[in-house]
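Two entries, shown back to back:
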Amino acid sequence: MTEAQKIAAEAPSYVMTLIIEMLEGHYKDNEVLLGTVIDGDSEIQIQLKVTRDSEQFMDEI
């Protein structure tokens, strides 16, 4: 398993917490940084975000 996969595997444990905090705090969204991986000279952040702001929705493919 790659480092990116290990970081992403943590996401399920955060989902309900993010949603609960968002709803209880009446926020439009909530997010957490899961980790960072390095690709050469570049850093890549792996983030998890929940939102109810339809302006931020991504297209489903």
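entry 2 starts here
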Amino acid sequence: MYELFLSIISGIAAIYSVYQVVNFKPNPSKPNVTRPRLIVATIFLTVCAIGMYSFGYNTPERKEANYINSVLKEFEKGDRLLKGTKLSEASNDDMAKIIQKINKIKNNVNELSPPDTMPSEILTAQETMVRGLDKIAESIKYVNLDTFYDGSDLTGVSLIFYKYYLSDHSDVKNLIKTKYIDIINDKT
């Protein structure tokens, strides 16, 4: 996180140095401060800000962790939705709302794109989760308990893929929110 802070400070310093270059007035008491030196300082601070952000904060591990956090956040929404409602007591309007929310979660998961550094198994896990959510929505629509269990199994399998990925990549696991690690461990 300190990389982001240093990147922001470097960016602010670069903006300030651009301001100094634009409003430069030579001062005879400080002959070492010249416009070319201010331009060099501006370039240096800009490169520092970009470098700190690109190589310190915006690393592949952070991109992978953000992706997995997003997928698990959507999973948690669906899990809370299904646990918080009694489908046997829900009216047709309630069922339609639940199906609509599950479809929204499915679309959110489907729109996420894993970083290029992740293995193809993660893309498979995402597709499996989407298929599972689709089956859950279908089971609620047609009141089919077997399809519901199939959808639950598919989402559980996708969580297993994520769990194995995180067990092999401890640097990414350290960047995942703790509540999502607990979800993975509880569901698998």
